[in-house]
Design a protein that fits this description.
14 strands, 7% helix, 46% strand
C-alpha cells in the first residue's frame, strides 16, 4: 500500500486527527500556523486543532513560530501511541505568511487530553519529583496543579542540554507553557526551552 505520490492528500488537521488510522503510512498535505518548536521539530495548529511534525536531526531554520505554512508529502505515524507526522522536507514546504499570533490557553492538568498538539500554560505547579531517563539526558518533572492533578513536564534530550534537571527543585513552584503530547495512555507538556518556564 505504499503511497508513491509526492504531494499526498490535502486534509485539514481536524479531519486528519478524526480519521488518523486511515492515513497511517500514506501521504498528506496540511496547512497551519507553527505554534511551538522543540529541537528541530514543530507543532502545527489549524482552527483549534494541533499536531506534532517530527523533523529529525535536520536543521529547520525555515520553520519559525508564527509562520503559516503548507507542507506536502508528510506521512502520518503513531509513536508511543502519539499521533505525529514525519517525512518533512524543506522542498515540500510553502510559506504563506509570517507573524501570526499563537493562542496559549491556561488549563488544569485534567484537561490535557483535550489539548493534544496545542500550546497551553500552567500558572502555578508544585514540583513533586524529577524522573531521569535511563538512556540519555532527558528527564520528566512531575508536578501537581492547584486542584491536585498530576502534570508531567517532559524535557527531551535536546532541551536538557541547556536546561539541566537540577534547576527544578522539589517543593518549589513553576509556571510553564508548551505543547501537549500523548505518551502511551498519559499526557505530558513538552518544554521547548528555558524561556518557557518561570521559576517562582
Amino acid at each position: 500500500d505504499y503511497d508513491y505520490s509526492k504531494e499526498g492528500t490535502p486534509i485539514s488537521i481536524a479531519e486528519l486527527i478524526l480519521h488518523f488510522d486511515d492515513y497511517v503510512a500514506k501521504k498528506v498535505t496540511v496547512t497551519g500556523v507553527i505554534t511551538s518548536k522543540v529541537g528541530n521539530s514543530v507543532y502545527l495548529e489549524q482552527d483549534g486543532k494541533g499536531i506534532y511534525i517530527y523533523c529529525g536531526y535536520v536543521l529547520t531554520n525555515e520553520l519559525q513560530i508564527g509562520h503559516e505554512v503548507t507542507i506536502q508529502g508528510l506521512v502520518p505515524a503513531v509513536y508511543y501511541e502519539s499521533r505525529q507526522l514525519s517525512n518533512y522536507s524543506e522542498q515540500n514546504m510553502q510559506l504563506l505568511s509570517t507573524g501570526n499570533a499563537v493562542t496559549i490557553t491556561t488549563i488544569l492538568g485534567n484537561q490535557m487530553g483535550d489539548y493534544v498538539g496545542r500550546v497551553v500554560r500552567f500558572e502555578d505547579l508544585l514540583i513533586q519529583s524529577i524522573d531521569p531517563s535511563q538512556t540519555n539526558a532527558a528527564y520528566t518533572v512531575v508536578c501537581k496543579d492547584g486542584q491536585n492533578n498530576t502534570v508531567n513536564i517532559r524535557v527531551d534530550d535536546y532541551t536538557a542540554g541547556f536546561l539541566p534537571s537540577h534547576l527544578f527543585v522539589v517543593g518549589n513552584r513553576i509556571a510553564v507553557y508548551g505543547p501537549v503530547t500523548q505518551f502511551y495512555q498519559t499526557y505530558q507538556l513538552m518544554l521547548p526551552g528555558s524561556g518557557n518556564v518561570e521559576f517562582k
